[in-house]
Every structure is written in C-alpha cells, then in structure tokens.
Amino acid sequence: MQTPSLRLRIAVTSTLVLVIVLLAMDAFLYLTLRVQLEATLDEVLDTRIGVAVRLSERTPVPELAAALTEVGVPATVRVPDGREFTAAPVVPAVALDPRVQRVAALTGGGTVTVYASRAGVDRTLRRLLLLELAGTAVAAGLAVVLAAAYDRMLDALEAALDRSRRSDEHTRRFLADAAHQLRTPITRIRTTVESLFRADSPEVRDRLLTTLVRETGRARRLLAALLRIARLDQGDPPARSSVDIAALCRAEVERAEPFAPHVRFEFQAQNAPTAPLDVDAESIREAVSNLLDNARRHAARTIVVKVEAVTDTLRIEVADDGPGVRPDERELIFERFVSLDDRGGSGLGLPIARGVARAHGGDLVYTGTAFVLTVPLPPGSSSGPPRSAESSSASS
C-alpha cells in the first residue's frame, strides 16, 4: 500500500486539528450559553415564586391563580383538600411548550406551582448550534483551500529551489568549461610572448607574431561567444526592429564567400517575406553567421542557403554537401563546447544559434541534410510574389 506524501499528510493533519479545535470551541460555547440560559430560567422561576407568595398574603387562594395570571405569572394553585385552581387559558397554552416549573408552599396552606417556558432557550441553543456547525464547515472548507494553496506554494518553492540548484550547477559547469576553453589560447599567448623575448632572427619573430595575432583573435572570439551565451541564459527579450530577413541572409552569404574560395555558395529566396519583420537583427545575423561558419568548415563543394515563409513560420535553411552528422549525434552537436571534429570550432556556434532562435520563439534543428532555423511570423504576414532564385559562387 502506497504511503501518502508528506505534504498531503501535513495538509490533512492540520485540517483535522483545526476542525477538532473548532468543535471543542463550539462545544464550550454551547455548554456555557446553556448553563447561563438555564440559570436565567431559575432566576425567572424564583422571581415568580416570590410574586406568588407575596400575592397569597392578601389574595384568597381560589383567586390567587387568576391574580398571578393577570401579572404575567402562569401558575396552578392547590389547596389542602386537593382542589386545583388554574386561570384559563394559561396552562393549556403553556403545556404545549417545553417548560420548567417551581413549587412553593403558601402561608395560608396549599401550594402554588409557577411555570416558565423553555422554548426561547431551546430555540436560542438550536440557532447557536446551527451557526456553529455552519461556521465550522466553512472554516474547514477554507482550511482545505488554504492547505491546497500552501501545498501549491510548497510546490512552487520546491520548483524554484530546483531551478536555483540547476542554475547553480549549470553556472559551475559553464565556468569550468569556459576556463578549460580559455586555458589553451591563453597558454599559447603566454608561450608565444615568452618565445618572442628569446627570438633572435626576424623570421622567427614574424612567425611568433603571426601566432600571437591568431591566438589573440581566437581568445577574443571565444570570450565574445561566452558573453553571448551568458546573455542568452539570462533570458533577456530580443531587441526587435524591422529587418529585411532576405537581405540580411544574403549579406551574410556574401561575407562568408571570401573565407571559403573552394566552395560554391547558393542563395535562394523564392518565397521569402517581402515585408520587414520585427526581430533582433544582430542576433539573427549572428545565428546565420554561425551556421555559415559551421557549413564552410565541413562543405566539400557547395553551400545552399534558403529563406522562405511556410504558413506562419520563417525558415532559414543552411545545407552543405559535407559528410553530415550521425543520427545519434544530432542533438549532441547543440551541447555547449561539444566539437565532433578537429576543424577549429569552439563548440559554441550552434548552441548560440539555437539560443537565438528559441529567444525569438522558434527553434534550430538538424534534419540530416541541413540546419533549419525557424522563427514565428506575426499574424497577417505574407510572402508576396515569388522572388527569382539568387546565387553567388566562388571557385578555387
């Protein structure tokens, strides 16, 4: 048999304790009021007995019952010979109600019985009991609601603590990976500088200076990527502005061409949005640039960039004729600092590109033949008439 969760047991126990306390308070209040009301009835009977005794001193016994009734005291008078005198209609009316009575001896002989109705006392006690039960039921319901709210608060707090722990762990891992990635270029820069002090020939100095420039650039790019990853982790909203996506992608293709003279670049915008879109231009430019840099490191002869609008989604597709990625590694390539080859990548370009896409409400996936970056289009966006295919190429 499965044991209930700790939070459920706490909620149920606290609710039961509250109900028990409320019932105990209800019982105390009910009994206290009952004692007070019955004491009041006793005082009423004592007062009526006093009135009856005083009237009996100056009123004949046969007329005493009528005299008491006139002053509002229902009573029955009995004389020593057994006769009873009751003023009608007091006794029949009183007899219908629950009542209490008190008997006292008269000075001239006989007894007088005075009455008091319990109807008001019982009615008050019943009303109090109903109010107490209703109040307890309402309080118990509120307690259940509060317990549920408390449980949700604990869930939210637990989730926040889990997010905080994951964030801390992620930060520690990120800092460790960043330090590991920066260690290599910094070490090479230091070694190169130390070698410069010992170099004698101009040729050696030129070679060391070239290495120093290359390693400094690598460290700069790595630091820029790390800062970009940190900003994406903060979840800051994109700084949106109106951008011609097709023109932006075409410009990035033209920028990448000189760095891969052996590769032929093709740019296609046959169904691209004609109206500017509200996106973060620099972030999208960086994402496309990272995809192109990844493609030119792996392409054999051709890179194809396609921009198109499909229903309510903008698609930027970057494909190359390189060896591709195995199915079991298609998500691994989006992990930070993961490089499946030794072609100069830092392992941050693809994670940054995916982070940019997701910051815009889209995604970046690898389909097996191409990287596809998607961004939601605003309602009412249309692609307009098809554009002619554009292409550019560079040959070795």
Notes on the protein architecture:
- The structure is a single chain.
- Helix content is 56%, strand content 16%.
- The strands form three sheets. The chain has a six-stranded mixed beta sheet with strand order 10-11-9-8-6-12.
- The radius of gyration is 48 Å and the shape is rod-shaped.
- Helix 4 runs antiparallel to helix 5.
- It has 396 residues and is an alpha+beta fold.
- It folds into three domains: 6-117, 2-Layer Sandwich (Beta-Lactamase); 125-234, Signal transduction histidine kinase, dimerisation/phosphotransfer (DHp) domain (Helix Hairpins, Orthogonal Bundle); 241-391, Heat Shock Protein 90, CATH 3.30.565.10.
- The chain has helices at 6-56, 61-70, 90-95, 119-198, 202-234, 245-256, 281-298, 349-359; strands spanning 75-78, 84-86, 99-105, 111-117, 241-243, 264-271, 277-279, 302-310, 313-320, 363-366, 370-376, 390-391.
- A hairpin with a 5-residue loop joins strand 1 (75-78) and strand 2.
Short characterization:
With 396 residues, the protein is of the alpha+beta class.
- The CATH class of the largest domain is Alpha Beta
Unreliably modeled segments: 89-96, 383-390
CA-based gyration radius: 48 Å
Provide the CATH topology of the largest domain.
Heat Shock Protein 90
The domain count comes to 3
CATH architecture of the largest domain: 2-Layer Sandwich
Overall number of strands: 12
* Main β-sheet description: 6 strands, mixed
CATH superfamily of the largest domain: Histidine kinase-like ATPase, C-terminal domain
Order of helices and strands: HHEEHEEHHEHEEHEEHEEE
Report, as a whole number of angstroms, the end-to-end distance.
74 Å
Number of helices: 8
Helix share, percent? 55-70%
Structural class comes to alpha+beta
Largest sheet: spatial strand order: 10-11-9-8-6-12
| Overall pLDDT score | 81
Percentage of residues in strands: 15-25%
Question: What is the molecular shape?
Answer: rod-shaped
